[in-house]
Design goal:
Length: about 270
């Protein structure tokens, strides 16, 4: 892999640039992508799925790790020939899939193997993809994902923080989540208008069942849909004060001060 030409030269040779329609911003500095790969590992010989590899900067770094295989899912077909060239140099460790990651069947791609997720997510689909992986049938062994800084802060926010909300609760009900790296806009080509950050999510040993997660989505939608109201009012359609009392949650509190455990109790109570 060390004999590969610089990414900027590869992009120029293929006449490729970022497409705003796909929210693309490339990481071409291999020192940065290698740091992300280190923070995401170790992989202990497992498979890594990468979404939106683009020109393959992070892909190259992942191929330098202890992952047995990297599966790269790319929607923009302009990058498939470039990624195929990288696959040819990978001794069979890189599999390139042209697909929309929102529709991809990760369980089928892994064929029973354990998989991790590492990705510089396209800005326009980062949150829907995260919700898919948190609530869908496939549970990654770990997720190391780059978002806009605002979204990353929401994923990892504690109760009481301005960024704390539905995404915080759903993510932290399923995983331990923490921001492990901040990146300024100048690290990307072209530079976005906002900073970015990498979030590491490690699934909990006892995640909520799909039924409880579904109830949690409904409870958080109601609670944060009217976040300035007390829970007795914002959750009125789900039982209001009675629901809160059944869950051991103060009905006079507002959504932003209730921790994840409290919302899980509300979700369980909403199902009874």
């Amino acid at each position: 892999m060390t004999d590969l030409p610089p990414l900027r030269d590869v992009l120029e040779a293929h006449g490729l640039s970022a497409d705003k329609r796909f929210g693309q911003h490339f990481l071409l500095d291999l020192n940065v992508t290698r740091k992300i790969a280190r923070l995401a590992g170790p992989f202990d010989g497992d498979t890594v799925i990468e979404v939106g590899p683009g020109p393959g900067g992070l892909t190259r770094a992942l191929l330098e790790t202890d992952a047995s295989q990297v599966i790269a899912i790319e929607k923009d077909r302009r990058f498939i020939p470039l990624l195929d060239e990288l696959a040819d140099a990978s001794d069979g460790r890189l599999i390139v899939i042209e697909a929309d990651a929102l529709k991809a069947d990760e369980l089928g791609l892994l064929a029973g193997r354990v998989g991790h997720l590492v990705s510089n997510l396209p800005y326009n689909v980062g949150t829907p993809l995260l919700i898919k992986w948190l609530t869908g049938p496939w549970r990654p062994k770990s997720l190391s994902l780059m978002f806009q800084k605002e979204v990353a802060d929401r994923v990892a926010a504690p109760p009481g923080a301005d960024a704390y909300g539905r995404l915080s609760i759903i993510a932290q009900a399923v995983c331990d989540a923490r921001v492990v790296m901040d990146l300024p806009a100048r690290a990307f080509t072209p530079p976005p208008k906002v900073a970015s950050a990498v979030v590491r999510l490690d699934p909990r040993a006892d995640p909520p069942s799909p039924e409880i997660l579904s109830a949690l989505e409904k409870v958080t939608a109601a609670a944060f849909g009217q976040r300035r109201k007390m829970l007795r009012s914002s959750l009125k359609s789900l039982g209001g004060a009675d629901l809160c009392e059944a869950a051991g949650v103060d009905p006079g509190a507002r959504a932003e001060v209730i921790d994840v455990a409290g919302f899980l109790r509300l979700a369980r109570a909403a199902r009874t």
